[in-house]
Amino acid sequence: MTIYDYPEYYEIAFSFRDIPREARFVDSCIKRFSDIPVTRIFEVGCGPAPHVSELARMGYQYTGLDNNRNMLDYAIYKNRDINPSPEFIEGDMVKFDLARKVDFAFVMLGSLYLNSLEEMNSHFDSLSRVLPSGGLYFLDWCIQFSDPLDHGAGNVVDSDRDGISVESRFDIKIVDPTSQMYEEIWTVNVNDNGRRRKFKMTEYNRAIFPQEFLLFVENRPDFEFVGWWKEWDLSKPIETASEVTRPIALIKRTRT
Ligand SMILES: C[S@@+](CC[C@H](N)C(=O)[O-])C[C@H]1O[C@@H](n2cnc3c(N)ncnc32)[C@H](O)[C@@H]1O
């Protein structure tokens, strides 16, 4: 069992986010940069789908993909009153297909789990099949503008809700420098109204560095780079900033 099997605890651990602001930023990127009208939106690694209710209020119809059944069941239950119903699909982001095309795709909180160049190409091939030309792909915190180790080294985050307190500690180390693989050990201590639980989860992830990402996109005939920003603010493009947290990158499906 990992913290992803306990979506309520996961949500509390990440409750520091300003979800309405993030949803408004997504909407402003769509309005400003999409070449196609956007109704159907698609989230990769959706987890509990924290942005779905805000985005549905703006008129978007949502599809989320995740490989964790508990997360999906929780997202379905929590969002059961949204009309039209959001759609949740169990699948692997490395290779997937959707019954219907979507107009916009996004991935939040660095949830791009692609551990080799082959997996990256397979993911973008899958996305290319479901996103028509002119559609955007929005990536939150998926590109490493700083040393991944800076996010670790015992970084502790505390959050509380409804008598449940969740303390997360992240420890990160490089495990294979040539393939840019790092290991993130996420230790979570929960106090659920007096009941204490502990989760320890090890994730392996491959760092994607900015110049590598630009080259990757440039080498694909089906995508082009649009821009990158920080602090959920289109007036703050990332250029020479020394510190960048939660970088957002935007790419567009081209005509092929
Ligand atoms: C950090 S959570 C982010 C959830 C959500 N996007 C958010 O903003 O809170 C990462 C999610 O990615 C999912 N995930 C991990 N590997 C995956 C894969 N290969 N395919 C699909 N989903 C995956 C996990 O189950 C988890 O729900």
Plain-language structure description:
The protein has 256 residues and is of the alpha/beta class. It folds into 2 domains: 3-145 and 208-253, Vaccinia Virus protein VP39 (Rossmann fold); 148-206, N-terminal domain of TfIIb, CATH 2.20.25. It is 24% helix and 32% strand. The strands form 2 sheets. A 7-stranded mixed β-sheet has the order 3-2-1-4-5-11-10, sandwiched between helices. The longest helix is centred in the first third of the chain and has 15 residues, at 19-33. The chain is globular, with a radius of gyration of 18 Å. The model has no long low-confidence stretch (mean pLDDT 93).
Could you give a quick summary of the protein structure above?
This protein has helices at 7-13, 19-33, 52-57, 69-78, 117-130, 210-218, and strands spanning 40-44, 61-66, 87-90, 104-107, 136-140, 155-161, 164-176, 181-192, 195-206, 223-229, 248-253. With 256 residues, the chain is an alpha/beta fold.
